[in-house]
Write a structure and sequence with these properties.
InterPro entries: Invertase/methylesterase_inhib (IPR035513), Pectinesterase_inhib_dom (IPR006501), PME_Inhibitor (IPR051955)
GO molecular function: enzyme inhibitor activity
Protein name: Pectinesterase inhibitor domain-containing protein
Structural class: mainly alpha
Shape: globular
Number of strands: 2
Number of helices: 8
Helix content: 55-70%
Radius of gyration: 17 Å
Number of domains: 1
Order of helices and strands: EHHHHHHHHE
Largest sheet: 2 strands, parallel
CATH superfamily: Invertase/pectin methylesterase inhibitor family protein
CATH class: Mainly Alpha
CATH topology: Butyryl-CoA Dehydrogenase, subunit A, domain 3
Keywords: Signal
Strand order of the largest sheet: 1-2
Strand content: under 5%
Length: about 220
């Protein structure tokens, strides 16, 4: 399935300047130079097609001490970080509704988080839980489930974005929320790419939907 993100540079700038914060999950353990280099090398590996390698390094490097050069842990942490960021976007949308967004914008924001982002968050929780509990006996099936959940999470984010683009008239609000959604979608794409790198080497799915994500 081909997904095209038509997000201009203003949206991306607003997302990075107003949304970025340290993930809520604390990085465990002290990172060595090799731990940090592992994350940098994996994020920038040409065999792992990420929508945004620099965001991968920026958001995952604080967890180098916990990852300890383990690709399975890195994939799980990437999903966890995206889960937390998506939660923060829901909080932002709720604040805008409370602050008195116009009726159409309010409907679009509520539809986005109630219908799509809550579902996306649940699918990411399912994914991390499955990766934590994975066993040799059901590894292939579990990895297939994770791919299905992460694909669904990205589809939910696409649907949310489409509704916001059509229904939010206030250009400042639109730029802010679409910028945040662009960031979440790139983080989700990064997490999906890292998962596929792990999955493909462990008997699971290798087809990465993120290969067809286009960031303008």
């Amino acid at each position: 399935m081909k997904t095209t993100l038509s997000i201009n540079s203003l949206f991306i700038f607003l997302a990075l300047s107003s949304v970025h914060s340290r993930p809520s999950r604390a990085a465990a353990g002290a990172a060595t130079k090799e731990d940090t280099q592992f994350i940098e090398a994996t994020c920038n590996n040409k065999d792992v097609v990420l929508p945004n390698p620099s965001l991968c390094v920026r958001y995952l490097s604080p967890f180098a001490g916990a990852v300890k050069r383990d690709l399975a842990v890195l994939a799980r942490v990437a999903i966890d970080v995206t889960h937390d960021k998506t939660n923060s976007v829901v909080t932002y949308m709720r604040k805008n509704v409370s602050a008195g967004a116009d009726v159409k914008a309010e409907i679009a924001l509520k539809d986005c988080w109630n219908t799509y982002l809550v579902s996306s968050i649940g699918e990411m929780e399912n994914s991390t839980n499955a990766l934590k509990a994975i066993s040799a006996a059901d590894k292939a099936a579990a990895l297939g489930d994770v791919q299905a959940w992460m694909d669904a999470a990205l589809t939910d984010q696409d649907m949310c974005t489409a509704g916001l683009e059509k229904k939010v008239a206030d250009m400042n609000l639109k730029a802010a929320v679409l910028g945040q959604m662009a960031l979440v979608k790139q983080l989700t794409g990064n997490a999906l790419a890292l998962f596929h790198k792990f999955s493909c080497s462990n008997g699971g799915p290798c087809n990465a939907r993120i290969n067809t994500i286009i960031i303008h």
